[in-house]
Specification:
four-stranded mixed β-sheet
Length: about 500
């Protein structure tokens, strides 16, 4: 509730971004000159100096801080950065545009995402890196994003967004209705939020050919598309689907992209000699990488949410799946039931009863507001009804903050909102200083399968996650019937 990347090649470790496409040979010659007692007069090659001749760089540079702010900043891990530097170096050496500089930033987000901005800015989340299983899969993702940059898709998107904004202004001026213009703009932004179907498929093709030239397995793109699709299906298994809110509606379907990726890989590698996967080096890089939420966002541990900074915790009933988003903590359960938890500031001199009655709850039932205490904390609960749902609202005061639980249950469901709400809200409590200090983030750990190990025994070693075996299979690209192999290395989630 509530991106570091890799150093430039031939530049000392500890940088927060990786800049590829640089002249490593000339950098090495400069080092030789210094060792021989000569001083180099050449300007050091950095991403910024390599960008100077690229007029598109101003776009990426202006948007870069916004991307960092939206995705929790940059994630820094020297070991991981070194592993990715090797991947990007190979891709840069095999690029169609050797004069292009790239800045690869790892975003500190558990979401699975990667995207690019004009001027060579490429972003990849640590959530995506946790799902990948070898260097070739990450090369496929980065190669795809480089394809967007090479094809100038970002520039084309910006031009369409400007046209959409102009159209919205025309609507608002002609109709003298500001809301109509805002609606038009919102619709335009939704359709332009991602690249078009044609652009995504074009970037797939450019990326697969690029990966093959760099010596990586060209079938990695199809393999990882399958993994991402399987992960998305798992996340959506217990969540209501609304096609009108599906941002992927403007993208090619996963089966279509997988089929095309396999076809293109077969064309660049007709003899079937797969290129390099480089799995061990990649697993060494992700070993110890943060998994899931960071301390600033709070932790989800199976059905329990704990926030070390705020010093609070609560647990949802059995059968519910917790999801920690930027805006709120959400939980979905059987019969389309849902729980939302968030917090707002409230002056100490304002009563909770007045706050609940102030109008922010639609359909509030008169006479349902009741005062109570939860683990010694002042609280107020109330009932409401809207459409085909019954709602139960509970607010709890802690210092200058009010924490809000909103439980929604279909009117025809076999359970009522109050039953679920009481169990959830009554679990809300303050963490002791010892409990706060003991909380640790989850991390990817690499383990060796021993004789007799199975997916069940290895997944049982995971902590803090729900559906352990299913997640273990997804993280390691194992099908429902695939067995683990003795001596093979696998990813698990631990502290």
């Amino acid at each position: 509730m509530r991106a570091a990347g890799i150093c430039a090649l031939a530049i000392a470790s500890g940088c927060t971004t990786m800049e590829a496409g640089l002249d490593g040979l000339s950098a090495a010659r400069d080092e030789d000159s210094l060792q021989a007692g000569y001083t180099s007069t050449r300007q050091p090659i950095t991403f910024e100096t390599a960008q100077q001749g690229d007029p598109q760089s101003v776009i990426g540079r202006s948007q870069h801080p916004k991307i960092l702010a939206a995705y929790g900043g940059a994630y820094s891990d020297p070991k991981l950065e070194q592993a990715l530097a090797g991947i990007v170096g190979k891709l840069a050496a095999a690029s169609d545009d050797p004069n292009r500089a790239y800045r690869i930033t790892i975003l500190n987000s558990p979401n699975i995402n990667a995207f690019a901005l004009p001027g060579g800015y490429v972003y990849i989340t640590r959530g995506l890196l946790a799902l990948a299983n070898d260097s070739s899969e990450v090369a496929a993702v980065i190669g795809h994003e480089m394809g967007h940059i090479t094809a100038n898709h970002g520039i084309q998107r910006q031009q369409r967004e400007q046209a959409a904004e102009l159209a919205s202004r025309v609507v608002s001026e002609v109709l003298e209705n500001e809301s109509a213009g805002q609606i038009a703009l919102a619709k335009g932004k939704l359709s332009l939020a991602q690249f078009s179907r044609q652009q995504e498929l074009q970037a797939d093709g450019l990326g697969i050919r690029h990966v093959a030239r760099a010596g990586y397995d060209p079938f990695a793109a199809a393999r990882f598309l399958k993994a991402m699709d399987a992960y998305a299906n798992m996340r959506n298994a217990f969540q209501a689907k609304n096609p009108n809110l599906d941002f992927l509606a403007s993208h090619p379907s996963a089966p279509q992209r997988i089929q095309l990726a396999e076809k293109l890989a077969g064309e660049v590698n007709p003899v079937g000699n797969a290129g390099k996967r480089d799995r061990d080096r990649y697993l060494d890089g992700v070993d110890g990488m943060l998994f899931g939420d960071s301390a600033a966002e709070g932790y989800v541990r199976e059905r329990t949410f704990l926030h070390p900074g705020l010093g609070i915790s609560f647990t949802v009933p059995k059968g519910f799946i917790l999801d920690n988003t930027a805006e709120a903590v959400m939980a979905t359960g059987p019969d389309d039931t849902a729980i939302r938890f968030d917090g707002v500031a409230l002056p100490p001199n304002r009563s909770l009863v007045d706050y609940v009655n102030s109008g922010w709850i639609g359909g509030l039932e008169a006479g349902s507001v009741r005062q109570r205490r939860i683990h010694g904390l002042e609280a107020v609960s109330a009932k409401a009804r809207g459409g085909e749902y019954d709602f139960d609202v509970t607010v709890v005061r802690l210092g200058g903050q009010v924490y809000r639980f909103l439980t929604a249950v279909p009117s025809k469901a076999s359970v009522n909102a109050e039953t679920i709400a009481v169990e959830t809200a009554d679990s809300f409590h303050q963490l002791t200083p010892q409990e706060q200090a003991a909380l640790k983030p989850l991390r990817i750990r690499i383990v060796d399968a021993r004789p007799g190990d199975t997916a069940e025994t290895l997944s049982n070693r995971m902590v803090g996650v729900d559906g352990k075996e299913r997640l273990f299979r997804l993280l390691n690209e194992l099908g429902p019937d695939d067995a683990v192999k003795s001596g093979q290395r696998y990813k698990i989630v631990g502290e």
